[in-house]
Design goal:
Layout: H1 14-32, H2 36-49, E1 53-54, H3 55-61, E2 70-75, E3 79-84, E4 94-100, E5 105-116, E6 119-127, E7 140-147, E8 153-158, H4 178-181, H5 185-188, E9 196-199, H6 215-228, E10 238-244, E11 249-251, E12 257-260, H7 263-277, E13 285-291, H8 308-319, H9 325-333, E14 336-340, E15 343-344, E16 366-369, H10 385-397, E17 402-404, H11 419-423, E18 428-433, E19 435-436, E20 444-447, H12 448-462
Parallel strand pairs: 1-2, 4-13, 4-14, 14-18, 15-19, 16-17
Antiparallel strand pairs: 2-3, 3-13, 5-6, 5-10, 6-9, 7-8, 7-10, 11-12, 12-20, 16-18
The chain binds manganese (II) ion (2 copies).
C-alpha cells in the first residue's frame, strides 16, 4: 500500500498556493480562537455572514424549515450545530461532520488567588491528558470569562495581544534539581505545582507605620477590579483557561507545517465547518457538529453525551411539521458520520510506538481510523467495512489523498473520540482527521497539505447520498 506524497498533487504555482492560502486562514483562526467559547463565537459570526439563522429565532416565531435552509444552534456558547437542510426527508438521515473544540489546558481553580513570599499566584487544575512537565517555563495567556452575580459576563483575553504581559509556571534550576530529575516523568512536575505567577508589586500603603497584609495579592485584586470590574469572589463563577501565549506559526524552511496550540481538534473542526458553509441545497441534510469536553470524556451539558444534538434534530423535524418519536429515531439511525478527530503522526524520534504499515504520516492526507480503543480495541467504535468501502469509493473518485491508521502499536496505549457516542444511535460512524505531531503538547504540529485534503474529504463526504 504505497501512498504517494500529497504535496505532489499540488505543483508549485496556483495549485500549491491554494493549499498555502487555506492554511493561512486556518493559522489565523487558530491564533485567535484558543478556547471552545472563542471558537463558537467566531463560527457564529462566520455562519451568520454565510446566511445561517439561529434556530431559536425560528422556534420563537414557529417559522417552518424547508430544503436549502441554513440553521445553527449555539449551545451554552460552548457547542455548536449547523444544518443545511436537504431536499430529502430528514428521516432518511443526515451527513454529519463531528469534531470537538475543547483542547488540553490548565483551568484556574475556583479559589485560586494567593500570596507567597510577596508573589501573587493563581492555582490551576489541568484539563485533559497533558504531560505536566511540558507546561512550565512557557509564556502563557489567560482566556475565559467571569460570570458575575448581576448576570453580566466579562470576557478575559490577556497574553496574546501585542503589548500584553504573559504569565507562566516556574521550574527548578538544574543546579537544585538532582532529586527532581530522579523522579519518573509523571511525577516530575506534579499537578499542584502548576501555579501561575501573576504579580509581585505590593499595594501602595500611604499610612507607612502599618504593613499591609498580603499587599501583593491586594494589588492584583485592585488591577483586576480596574480591568474587569470584578471582586475576588467572582473567581467562584469564572471559567478561565490558561493556554500557550502567542500565534500559531509556519513551521519548517519550506513552511509546509504549522505549529500551534489546539490543533487537537480545531484542525478538524475548522475544515469541517468550512466544508459545511460551502454546501448549497444538498440532497441529504448536511450537519457540522462541534462539541466541547471531548478531552475529559465528552461529559457535561456541552459534551457529546448531552442530548442537545438529538433535541435539536427533534426541533427541526417539528418545524418541518413531521416530528414523531419514530421520525427522530430514523433521522438519527440513518445518518452517516465522520467523527473528525486528529491522529498521532508518525514521529521519526519515536519510531518504536508505531507499527509502520498502520501508522499515520505527514503529507499522506486525511487519516481514517476504523477503530481506536486500547487493550484489544476496548472502547472502540470499530466502523463497518461496508461504510469504509463507500467512503473509499468517493475519495478515490475525487482523487483525494487519504490513509488509514491505528493509534500506535497494539497494546502501546490508546485513546477515544466522540465516535462511539453517535454510534449508539445506530449511525454509520468512522473516525477521520488530520495527523498531529506532539499531540496534546502546548505546541502541536500539523502538515498543511493534510489539512487541505481534510477539507476536500469533508466536502466529498457531505455530497454522499
Ligand atoms: Mn481530539
Ligand atoms: Mn485529544
Amino acid at each position: 500500500m504505497e501512498h504517494k506524497n500529497a504535496w505532489e498533487n499540488y505543483p508549485e504555482g496556483e495549485a500549491r498556493q491554494k493549499v498555502m492560502d487555506f492554511a493561512e486562514d486556518y493559522r489565523r483562526f487558530l491564533s485567535k480562537c484558543k478556547t471552545e467559547r472563542e471558537c463558537v463565537q467566531e463560527f457564529v459570526v462566520l455562519a451568520e455572514q454565510a446566511g445561517f439563522t439561529d434556530l431559536n429565532e425560528l422556534l420563537a416565531k414557529g417559522t417552518p424549515v424547508k430544503a436549502g435552509d441554513k440553521v445553527y444552534v449555539n449551545h451554552m456558547g460552548k457547542a455548536l450545530a449547523l444544518f443545511v437542510i436537504g431536499t430529502q426527508e430528514l428521516e432518511k438521515g443526515m451527513n454529519i461532520l463531528g469534531a470537538h473544540i475543547d483542547s488540553p489546558r490548565l483551568d484556574i481553580k475556583q479559589v485560586p488567588l494567593y500570596e507567597d513570599t510577596e508573589l501573587a499566584l493563581l492555582d490551576t487544575h489541568y484539563y485533559g491528558g497533558v504531560k505536566k512537565y511540558q507546561w512550565v517555563t512557557l509564556p502563557l495567556a489567560i482566556h475565559g470569562v467571569f460570570a458575575k452575580k448581576d448576570g453580566t459576563v466579562v470576557n478575559v483575553n490577556i497574553g496574546d495581544k501585542p503589548g500584553d504581559p504573559v504569565f507562566g509556571i516556574s521550574d527548578l534550576l538544574p543546579h537544585l534539581a538532582a532529586e527532581q530529575m530522579e523522579k519518573k516523568g509523571s511525577k516530575l512536575i506534579e499537578g499542584e505545582r502548576l501555579d501561575l505567577l501573576i504579580g509581585s508589586i505590593p499595594m501602595q500603603n500611604d499610612e507607612k507605620d502599618e504593613k499591609e497584609k498580603e499587599a501583593v495579592k491586594k494589588n492584583i485584586l485592585k488591577i483586576l477590579k480596574e480591568a474587569y470590574h470584578i471582586e475576588e469572589e467572582d473567581f467562584l463563577s469564572a471559567e478561565l483557561e490558561v493556554v500557550p501565549a502567542g500565534e500559531a506559526r509556519d513551521y519548517g524552511f519550506d513552511r509546509s507545517m504549522i505549529m500551534g496550540y489546539g490543533h487537537d481538534d480545531r484542525v478538524c473542526a475548522y475544515p469541517s465547518f468550512l466544508a459545511t458553509l460551502q454546501v448549497q441545497k444538498p440532497e441529504k441534510t448536511s450537519v457540522c457538529l462541534l462539541v466541547d469536553k471531548e478531552e475529559i470524556g465528552s461529559v457535561g451539558a456541552t459534551g457529546m453525551h448531552s442530548r442537545f444534538f438529538e433535541d435539536t434534530v427533534a426541533e427541526i423535524l417539528n418545524l418541518q411539521g413531521v416530528f414523531s418519536e419514530l421520525a427522530l429515531r430514523r433521522a438519527m439511525r440513518n445518518s452517516c458520520v465522520l467523527s473528525s478527530d486528529v491522529s498521532a503522526a508518525y514521529d521519526p524520534n519515536y519510531p518504536e510506538v508505531t507499527e509502520k504499515r498502520n501508522g499515520a504520516y505527514f503529507g499522506k492526507g486525511l487519516v481514517f481510523n476504523k477503530y481506536t480503543g486500547a487493550r484489544g480495541k476496548s472502547g472502540s467504535n470499530d466502523a463497518n467495512a461496508e461504510y469504509m468501502a463507500r467512503i473509499r469509493n468517493i475519495l478515490d473518485e475525487r482523487k483525494i489523498a487519504f490513509q488509514t491508521a491505528e493509534l500506535g502499536k497494539v497494546d502501546q496505549g490508546g485513546g477515544g473520540t466522540i465516535a462511539y457516542i453517535l454510534a449508539n444511535y445506530g449511525m454509520q460512524v468512522i473516525d477521520s482527521g488530520v495527523p498531529v505531531l506532539s499531540m496534546h503538547a502546548p505546541w502541536e504540529i500539523i502538515s498543511k497539505v493534510d489539512l487541505y485534503e481534510a477539507l476536500q474529504g469533508y466536502e466529498a463526504f457531505l455530497d454522499m447520498v
